[in-house]
Fold 4-diphosphocytidyl-2-C-methyl-D-erythritol kinase.
Amino acid sequence: MLDSLDRTISLAAPAKINLALHVTGRRSDGYHLLDSLVIFAAFGDKVNVKHAPADSFAMSGPFGSELPDDENNLVLRARDALRRHFPEQATPVAIHLEKRLPVASGIGGGSSDAAATVRSLAALWGIEAEPEQLAAIGLMLGADVPMCLQGRSLIARGIGEDIEHVAGLPHLPILLANNGLSVSTPQVFAALEKRDNPPLPALPALATVLDVCAYLAETDNHLFAAAARLTPAICETMDELRNTDARLVRMSGSGGTCFAIYDSDGEAETAAKNLRQRNPDWFVVATHSVKEGS
């Protein structure tokens, strides 16, 4: 049964952070095989949906003007994909995207937006689909969408569709920084010099920030070298973060957003304040990992 016509469903579309990302091979169709430890941040975009006489789509937020408002937008592609699978329930909707994450920046903004759209419209339209069915729809939109539908700590393998939940990770204070770079993921993968790296080491019990950082020190982001060759300014962001006395500094995904991990939220906030003062035009956010089950 449809919800009341005046009901608005709002869902967060959190930043996806690749704490570690190993490239382990490439399929015959060109897709790369990955092994990645992923968390989601408390900061991100927001998707609002409600019933309407006709479909509409609007965007706001600091990065809303940087996205297309046509079928190239993953939000509209997600709406249309869900509608094709459930045409009898898919009534017209008004969708609003508050875009707070930089575009093409390695923290899964578009994929997370698509996942939030699928979840919110499934609720609005009263679709009782199995998680596996929604994941299959999400995979058609992009390799990162299934993991964003999970929205919890995980290891993603294959092209991103083989997902293993990770329980028990501690609260991770994090600073996200991007100096205005948009990086092409296909170009980064094309620039890789090595594609047959070993998978992630076995995941031990990780009870503290120190445990997590000690484990991550044994891992890598295999996309960083290629991204830095294509866009050397990423190294500037990394250097700035290293100057904040973080426990660990790394690039997320294919870049160009980088992150730093701290012992406390207060240290992350202080580092963000100082970094913004030095670089007022950068995207800089102090946040933390999403608590399991929240």
Notes: The longest strand covers residues 32-51. Residues 8-165 form a domain with the Ribosomal Protein S5; domain 2 fold (CATH 3.30.230.10). The CA atoms of residues 174 and 261 lie 5 Å apart. The chain has a mean pLDDT of 94.
